[in-house]
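Chapter summary example.
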Amino acid sequence: MNRKSITRRRTALATGLALALGLGVTAQASAGAPRSVSGKPSDNITRIADFYGAYIDAVTDEGGGALADALRKHYLTPAFQKELAAWEAKEHANGVLRAQNVPLAWKVTDNGTADHTEAVVTLTWNSQDTTTLIVDMTRGSHKIFHIGERGVGGK
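The structure predicted for these 155 residues follows.
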């Protein structure tokens, strides 16, 4: 056999193995239409989503502790930062995530209110486990002043 034939056979074998293992489905799904995410800094739901996305990236990435702290200082009111620190000392967990580990995904949904923005943040840990948080942000300063679990000390 020549070198070209061997390469073709290996490629065909690898493709067949990938399809047999179900890897072809993943490749097809990721080859779909381009996704887009939009937002604007004046929109509190965008800001809450931006905070959770950046915060989760920071606590996931190696050496991201300083960034996570900076994000807290930027997005949380000073009073809530103190409240969160007390909660964390008592619960031995991350107060922003209300957990000791990091979620695989998150979703932010507008829950509305008149004098401030209330959002529902759904954190997904695996295919079956989620945590639902209520996050409140001031309209004027765009600062988070409350994070709580829905139905557990939340609203």
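To summarize the output: The first strand starts at residue 105 and ends at 110.
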